[in-house]
Amino acid sequence: MQENRAFDHYFGSLNGVRGFGDPRVARFPNGDPVWYQPDGNGGYVLPFRPDVSDLGLTFIEDTDHNWNQTHIALNGGKYDQWVEQKGTTSMAHLTRKDIPFHYSLADAFTICDAYHCSLLGPTDPNRYHMWTGWVGNDGNGGGPVLNNAEVGYDWSTYPERMVKAGISWKVYQDAGAGLDGPDFWGWGPNAYIGNYGDNSLLYFHQYQNAAPGSPLYEGALTGTDIKSLAGSNPQVAPHLVDQFRADVMANRLPQVSYIVAPEAYSEHGNWPPNYGAWYIAQFLDALTANPEVWSKTVFLLTYDENDGFFDHVVPQTPPMNRAQGISTVPTTNEIFPGDASFVAGPIGLGVRVPMIAISPWSKGGYVNSELFDHTSIIKFMEARFAEDNPGLIESNITPWRRAVAGDLTSAFDFKRPNAKVVALPGTASYVPPNQDRYPDYVPPVPSNQAMPTQEPGTRPARAVPYELYANGSVDVGGGSFTIDYRSAGKAAVFQTRSGNSDAGPSTYTVGSGDQVVDSYPISGSGLSGYDLSVHGPNGFLRAFRGSLNGSATVQVQVHTSYHKEHNAITLTLSNPGSQSAQVSLKDVYSGRIVSVQLQAGHRDESTFELNPTFGWYDFVITAESDSTFLYQISGHVESGEESRTDPAIGSR
Q1: Quick one: DSSP state of residue 315?
Q2: Is 184 left (phi over 0), alpha (psi -120 to 50) or beta?
Q3: Are strands 626-636 and 256-259 parallel, antiparallel or unpaired?
Q4: Cα distance between residue 49 and residue 186, in whole Å
Q5: pLDDT at 415 over 90
Q6: Four-residue CA torsion sign, 446, 114, 347, 323
Q7: Residue of 642, 635, 574, 644 lying closest to 608 (CA atoms)
Q8: 99 backbone dihedrals φ, ψ, rounded to 5°
């Protein structure tokens, strides 16, 4: 687990992922996509690539990433305070030419473009989710922990479960000046040694008090000793991998290994991404040097949080109260009520961060778009080891998080390992030349702003377990609009935004097989019409817009039926109103238009075969009698089989 990079910040321009070319991005009430982050002075800042030739080796400044400012930036889901809270550097991003090693990993293996950090805040609480399943959400053991206080905690950790179950594990790190309290548990002034304090297990009393020779001590409190070596970089840097390399070559790599980098290699703000690329490459080279070990290993590369760097996908969160939405899944211990130090808000999910699944079972340049977070790493280990040992099921993971975040297994094809040799670009030129610190680089915002482009083309896509529905209907007499949310597959989070008012957004967690119905006032809010958009996983979008004109109101409803076995979709248009409606149905992908004279009380069905678009669909329905009427039905028919990514991404 590396440090502090958002998904768009690294991979917004990578082809096939939901990045800068996302055709279904959330919008503000003024119609602007969330890319147009207000600057507080009546303008906006778009994502921009700093004009630096060696950006991947540049020391871009660290930006704010604490709990309070991140929740203010989220702004209840409005997502419009990013620049004001994080600064303009938050909108900076890199491209393939800047970080070619990272992009090559995505090209060769599987990148997850719906992987989020766990908490809307800093490093330690996010790492606690990876190592323990939560931050002591119930208030016991020193929790809930929302900052990097590191004062000592007592709730249980997942490695302790592994010890009881006989699962071997180890943290690979450098000891720095010492893995003890006086030496800040491995974090010291020399950024090129130690663990940057990122071995967060060491902030738990059971590890601090562990005796040499005990499983907790040997697993978490040992490491390389770079400080004892003569010389400096680049000569000493390769020795950071000595213990890991030796264990791989001796066939004694533990069943579970955690890798924690020194500060300079962590990719944290003020450190170059390509120092991290060099560091990652050393471990991959060591791992693949023993084909037997590599053939049975999964290497997960992810980032603890986003720093303050912007990502356009609004984090999925549970509703804090009924006014903010509904959840059919218990949200127990997922809402922080606020106190004198921290504002009230959902604990997570946090902002999207990169995750690349590297293994013989994840080769091929795939994209996986199932929703994940750091607790998914624990759930992956549960899937691997807990079948015969229920003690490995982590009870700290909340019901809500267990329902909505997957276990990472969908990123792999364990039936078909791929032995093809992968060629990755060299990183030798990225090894740090010394052990110096460098000043921050603060990139200026371009004077002529423009949205960055995304590489064209699709990628193979892993199957994801969703079957989503959101059907809307206008209630003329009640002056309201109703949406019926359903999830026939995996539990899902829907986010509903208003385009003609400051109401909301609202968030709905719909458990597997569950249904939620909610209504939105039109007349009662002083509005003459409705403009609602529903966003769900993997590009799911339902948009509803129209006017309230008494008996002349267009009351057309649209329902979808998915034909998984035929890769097709049927749209059923019905007219429960008292007047006929002349309706046009446009297939955005093909340009085909179907015109329907829909009599009062009648319905019409149109079926569309989706093989040419790999199961993706995007339909726009308009009505002749109401120029404001526009429904959009977009998403992907999930067949349970591999597919390809959305051809609309990066094409418009």
Answers
A1: P
A2: left
A3: unpaired
A4: 34
A5: yes
A6: positive
A7: 635
A8: -130, 65
Amino acid letter, 413: D
Which run of H or E residues covers position 321?
none
In the block, which residue shows the tokens 């590369």? 301
Burial of 390 (0-12, 13-18, 19+ CB in 10 A): exposed
Mean per-residue pLDDT for 15-20?
97
Q: Determine phi and psi for 320, rounding to 5 degrees.
A: -80, -25
Pairing of strands 460-461, 643-644: antiparallel
Q: Using CA atoms, how far apart are residues 507 and 517, in angstroms rounded to an integer? A: 12
Question: What pLDDT digit, counting tens, does each position of 92-104 carry?
Answer: 999 999 999 999 9
- Which residues, including other chains, have CB under 8 Å from residue 567's CB and lie 6 or more apart? 609, 610, 611, 615, 637, 639
Q: How far is CA 177 from CA 128, 184, 232, 507, in A?
A: 23, 9, 15, 47
Return the closest-CA partner of residue 642 out of 365, 296, 352, 357.
365
Rounded to 5°, the CA angle 237-241-242 comes to 105
Q: Report the DSSP pairing between strands 169-172 and 603-609.
A: unpaired
In SS3 terms, 328-376 reads as CCCCCCCEECCCCCCCCEECCCCCECCEEEECCCCCCCEEECCCECCHH
Assign residue 43 a region: left if phi > 0, alpha if psi is -120 to 50, beta otherwise?
A: beta
Q: What is the DSSP string of 546-608?
A: EE--GGG----EEEEEEETTTTEEEEEEE--SSS-EEEEEEETTT--EEEEEE-TT-EEEEEE
Rounded CA separation 428/382 (Å): 37
- Locate tokens 């660290």: which residue? 62
> Assign residue 39 a region: left if phi > 0, alpha if psi is -120 to 50, beta otherwise?
alpha
In the block, tokens 């001796």 appear at 250
Beta bridge partners of 593: 586
Give, as one character, the DSSP assignment of residue 258: E
Q: Which pLDDT does position 200 carry in this prediction? A: 97
pLDDT at 551 over 80: no
- 234: tokens are 């680049």
Tell me, what's the pLDDT at 652? Answer: 64
Token pair 């020194």 is found at 262
Q: Would you call the peptide bond into 354 cis, given omega within 30 degrees of 0 as the criterion?
A: no
CA-to-CA distance for 493 and 328, rounded, in angstroms?
10
Q: How many CB atoms lie within 10 A of CB 380?
A: 20
| Token pair of 389 as six digits | 């040992």
Token duo for residue 249: 């070559």
Residue listed under structure tokens 């982590």: 394
In sequence order, the 6+-apart residues with CB closer than 8 A to the CB of 515 are 328, 484, 485, 486
- Backbone CA torsion sign across 375, 376, 377, 379: positive
The single-letter DSSP state of residue 554 is -
Whether the model clears a pTM of 0.85, i.e. scores above it, the answer is: yes
**What is the distance between the alpha carbons of residues 220 and 158, in angstroms, rounded to a whole number?**
12
Question: What is the mean pLDDT of the segment spanning 182-190?
Answer: 92
Q: How remote is the C-alpha of 294 from its chain's centroid? A: 27
Quote the tokens at residue 420: 């093809």
